[in-house]
Design goal:
The complex is a heterodimer. Chain A has a single domain, classed as Hotdog Thioesterase (Thiol Ester Dehydrase, Chain A), CATH 3.10.129.10. Helix content of chain A is 17%, strand content 41%. Chain A has two helices and eight strands; from the N terminus they run E-E-E-H-H-E-E-E-E-E. Chain A has helices at 31-40, 51-63; strands spanning 4-5, 11-12, 25-28, 66-67, 73-81, 90-103, 106-116, 122-132. In chain A, strands 1-3-6-7-8-5 form a six-stranded antiparallel beta sheet, with helices on one face. A two-stranded parallel ribbon of chain A has the order 2-4. The longest helix of chain A has 13 residues, at 51-63. The radius of gyration of chain A is 15 Å and the shape is globular. Chain A starts with a strand and ends with a strand. Chain B is α+β, with helices and mostly antiparallel strands. Chain B has a single domain, classed as Hotdog Thioesterase (Thiol Ester Dehydrase, Chain A). Chain B contains five helices and five strands. Chain B has helices at residues 20-30, 35-38, 40-44, 55-70, 72-77; strands at residues 10-17, 78-84, 93-106, 109-119, 125-135. In chain B, strands 1-3-4-5-2 form a five-stranded antiparallel beta sheet. The longest helix of chain B has 16 residues, at 55-70. Chain B is elongated. In chain B, 42% of the residues are buried. Classes of the chains: A alpha+beta, B alpha+beta. The interface between A and B is large, with 37 and 40 residues.
């Protein structure tokens, strides 16, 4: 999977601050990319891109610029979908740090994701809560 | 389609067998090669004791169930909020279940409010959450 990013530098958890915006990335949701995704999730598709595929690529775009400790896990997730996205569309992904939380020895990161199509219309938004290993 | 949507309806469940091969395929498709998912020796030394499936892989199963139930209404006007309660592991059989708790009307627009859950073959809850779908007549 290849994303076009404006900046390839990575940032660590310690360097992140609430409001930090990750470099935006764009993807072409080609039929081959979606076929690979559908095979991985053991599902069949139609002419529209599964919204969770879009979410996966949006998160990958962010992860490409973020260096988290190995073993970080997903604790919670929210999504809202706004429009159908046809296969072949190009999406732009934007992500930022909403919150950094510490509870005892646990460190958590809340990230906000927004995805737009080539007409600059929002197709999806989301919020991911990641727990870092103690 | 709206006639098939009613309060109390149990949505058809989706059942998936999680394997390390599928986890690896998801890592390749998503670009998420966190060793907790793909490196057995690393994962064995963590408190989790072994590799676990990507949370987003399990959510793909949730979205598949919602797509089967609500079609394009889910794809274009769905909302999902979940918490991961336990990991899914290679060898698990994950069942996604959901019920329409209520149908709500706001300003002439109908919404289906659903509770959902993913559990494994031991009936351990893996994911718990809620989904809301804006319903539009004629869409499927």
């Amino acid at each position: 999977m290849q994303a076009k990013r404006n900046n390839k530098a990575t940032i660590s958890y310690e360097e992140l601050t609430p409001g930090y915006e990750f470099p935006p990335a764009s993807y072409e949701l080609s039929s081959s990319l979606i076929s690979k995704y559908l095979k991985a999730v053991d599902s069949s598709g139609d002419e529209f891109v599964p919204p969770l595929a879009i979410a996966a690529y949006a998160m990958a775009a962010m992860a490409g610029s973020l260096s988290l400790p190995p073993g970080s896990i997903h604790a919670a997730q929210e999504f809202e979908f706004f429009k159908l996205v046809p296969i072949g569309a190009t999406i732009d992904c934007q992500a930022k740090v909403a919150r950094k939380l510490t509870r005892g020895e646990l460190h958590m990161l809340v990230l906000e994701l927004n995805v737009f199509d080539q007409d600059r219309e929002k197709v999806q938004s989301g919020k991911a809560t990641i727990v870092l290993p103690a | 389609m709206l006639a098939e949507i009613y309060q109390g309806k149990i949505l058809p469940s989706v059942i998936k067998h999680v394997t390390q091969e599928k986890i690896n395929l998801y890592a390749e498709a998503s670009g998420d090669f966190n060793p907790i998912h793909v490196d057995e020796s690393f994962a064995a030394q963590t408190p989790l004791g072994g590799t676990i499936a990507h949370g987003m892989l399990i959510l793909a199963y949730v979205s598949e169930m919602m797509t089967l139930a609500f079609g394009q209404s889910w794809l274009s006007r769905g909302k999902l909020s979940v918490r991961f309660k336990a990991p899914a592991r290679s060898g698990d059989v994950v069942a996604v279940t959901s019920k329409i708790d209520s149908i709500e009307n706001k300003n002439g627009v109908s919404y289906a409010n659903c509770s959902l859950e993913c559990h494994n073959q031991e009936n351990e809850v893996i994911v718990i959450g809620k989904a809301v779908v804006e319903l539009v007549e004629g869409e499927s």
